[in-house]
């Protein structure tokens, strides 16, 4: 949707724009926090939002009838209203094979037509109904969206696909209603889009000039301002680009093929009480392409074409010597993981995209820390395989967390791999050890929490 701007003038730090209709509010969604059982614990969350009819009052901290469960990570003056685009809904419906998605499912308060993350800038001000809003930051997605979507990888997918959505601060309280026009009143300084700001934080190399530009935006939320300031200070003190020196962004080659290829499930392996690995081999007569350690593949699978699901899974074994191995944790509400665990059989054919991703092991002589928890072990396990295969003499630190021995996938495999390294350190933490789990043998410590 194009914007026609006829006249501008600067007022303070904002560029005044003649009022121009550019988008529309399709749905107002609210919901109060609830408790739900998930993985043996109770989660207090406000991720469940549903559309409401008629006008709703938007106040400085919230919309009437709405609430947040985790007030440390959500809500507050600079995150009062979360906005997500209907165009992104259509994108995820196709990418995930989920035609059932409904407004509010991403936890947004406003579902909008227009306002793409690539077009909306931090500091932009919009009139909706009788309320005035200012864009403050992209969404920081937590695991609760994965629960709501029945897709544990959803938070990572939003970052990977560049579709986070964004937050509004309420400048003037007022009433809003589905169908209201959205009018751009002022453009923020520096003209840095939500997409650009999101990538600047999450994707290397964090250019210094862009960090400095972001820090000049008064509307940027305090949390994001502190994160960018820390990245900039790290660059100033270390004289090198911020980030893990042992990991990417190594230059990734272009994808080895376009679209999907058919792969047969040649083996199905129970790695733990909750994790299943699939060994995948191509059926089209061509070898599977090598991958960089840490890369992922997109897999399309399901009982029929009409019920096909699309998911992203990291390669979990030596990736320079196919066949591919992917490892999936069974989730109580995960449609794809339940299908893999209960219905997919050896000999079945799934569709696989070429390996992708820049979170890869960099060739280097310096020490490397491989830190993971639960099923998050898969990409770093592929990196560990690569280090052993090349006979690395690097100092390798393996730090992993699991609930207990029953859920500790790849325990014997990692011990064997580490024994093949010249220099390694290993520490495994269980958050809830079983009586049969042996300290010093099955795990090294319990009840360790890391705050960031």
UniProtKB/TrEMBL annotation:
<dbReference type="InterPro" id="IPR008333">
    <property type="entry name" value="Cbr1-like_FAD-bd_dom"/>
</dbReference>
<dbReference type="InterPro" id="IPR005163">
    <property type="entry name" value="Tri_helical_YiiM-like"/>
</dbReference>
<dbReference type="GO" id="GO:0016491">
    <property type="term" value="F:oxidoreductase activity"/>
</dbReference>
<dbReference type="Pfam" id="PF00970">
    <property type="entry name" value="FAD_binding_6"/>
</dbReference>
<dbReference type="InterPro" id="IPR005302">
    <property type="entry name" value="MoCF_Sase_C"/>
</dbReference>
<dbReference type="InterPro" id="IPR052353">
    <property type="entry name" value="Benzoxazolinone_Detox_Enz"/>
</dbReference>
<dbReference type="InterPro" id="IPR039261">
    <property type="entry name" value="FNR_nucleotide-bd"/>
</dbReference>
<dbReference type="Pfam" id="PF03473">
    <property type="entry name" value="MOSC"/>
</dbReference>
<dbReference type="InterPro" id="IPR017938">
    <property type="entry name" value="Riboflavin_synthase-like_b-brl"/>
</dbReference>
<feature type="domain" description="MOSC">
    <location>
        <begin position="50"/>
        <end position="185"/>
    </location>
</feature>
<dbReference type="GO" id="GO:0030151">
    <property type="term" value="F:molybdenum ion binding"/>
</dbReference>
<dbReference type="GO" id="GO:0030170">
    <property type="term" value="F:pyridoxal phosphate binding"/>
</dbReference>
<dbReference type="Pfam" id="PF03475">
    <property type="entry name" value="YiiM_3-alpha"/>
</dbReference>
<dbReference type="InterPro" id="IPR001433">
    <property type="entry name" value="OxRdtase_FAD/NAD-bd"/>
</dbReference>
<dbReference type="InterPro" id="IPR017927">
    <property type="entry name" value="FAD-bd_FR_type"/>
</dbReference>
<dbReference type="InterPro" id="IPR011037">
    <property type="entry name" value="Pyrv_Knase-like_insert_dom_sf"/>
</dbReference>
<feature type="domain" description="FAD-binding FR-type">
    <location>
        <begin position="258"/>
        <end position="362"/>
    </location>
</feature>
<protein>
    <submittedName>
        <fullName>Putative flavoprotein/ferredoxin</fullName>
    </submittedName>
</protein>
<dbReference type="Pfam" id="PF00175">
    <property type="entry name" value="NAD_binding_1"/>
</dbReference>
């Amino acid at each position: 949707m194009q914007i026609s701007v006829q006249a501008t003038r600067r007022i303070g730090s904002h560029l005044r724009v003649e009022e121009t209709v550019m988008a529309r509010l399709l749905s107002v969604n609210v919901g109060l926090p609830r408790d739900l059982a998930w993985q043996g614990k109770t989660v207090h969350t406000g991720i469940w939002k549903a559309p409401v009819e008629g006008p709703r009052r938007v106040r400085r901290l919230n919309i009437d009838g709405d609430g947040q469960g985790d007030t440390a990570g959500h809500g507050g003056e600079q995150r009062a209203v979360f906005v997500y685009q209907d165009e992104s809904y259509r994108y995820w419906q196709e990418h995930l094979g989920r035609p059932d998605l409904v407004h509010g499912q991403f936890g947004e308060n406003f579902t909008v037509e227009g306002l793409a993350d690539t077009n909306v800038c931090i500091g932009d001000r919009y009139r909706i109904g009788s309320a005035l809003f200012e864009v403050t930051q992209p969404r920081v997605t937590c695991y609760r969206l994965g629960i709501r979507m029945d897709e544990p990888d959803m938070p990572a997918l939003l970052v990977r696909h560049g579709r986070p959505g964004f937050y509004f601060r309420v400048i003037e309280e007022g009433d809003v209603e589905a169908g209201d026009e959205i009018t751009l009143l002022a453009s923020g300084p520096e003209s840095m889009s939500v997409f650009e700001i999101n990538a600047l934080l999450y994707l290397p190399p964090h250019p210094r000039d862009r960090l400095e530009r972001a820090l000049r935006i008064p509307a940027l939320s305090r949390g994001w301002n502190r994160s960018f300031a820390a990245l900039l200070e790290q660059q100033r003190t270390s004289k090198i680009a911020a980030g893990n020196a042992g990991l990417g962004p190594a230059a990734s080659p272009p994808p080895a093929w376009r679209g999907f290829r058919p792969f047969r499930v040649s083996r199905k392996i129970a790695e733990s009480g909750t994790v299943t690995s699939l060994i995948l081999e191509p059926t089209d007569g061509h070898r599977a392409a090598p991958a960089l350690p840490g890369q992922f593949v997109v897999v399309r699978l399901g009982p029929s074409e009409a019920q096909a699901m699309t998911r992203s899974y990291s390669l979990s074994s030596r990736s320079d010597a196919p066949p591919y191995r992917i490892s999936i944790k069974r989730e109580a509400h995960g449609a794809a993981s339940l299908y893999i665990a209960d219905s997919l059989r050896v000999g079945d054919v799934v569709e696989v995209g070429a390996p992708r991703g820049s979170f890869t092991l960099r060739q280097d002589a310096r020490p490397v820390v491989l830190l993971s928890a639960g099923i998050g072990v898969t990409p770093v396990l592929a990196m560990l395989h690569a280090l052993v295969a090349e006979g690395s003499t690097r100092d390798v630190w393996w730090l992993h967390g699991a609930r207990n021995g029953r859920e500790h996938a790849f325990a014997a495999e990692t011990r064997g791999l580490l024994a093949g390294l010249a220099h390694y350190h290993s520490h495994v933490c269980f958050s809830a050890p079983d009586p049969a789990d042996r300290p010093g043998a099955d795990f090294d410590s319990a009840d360790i929490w890391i705050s960031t």
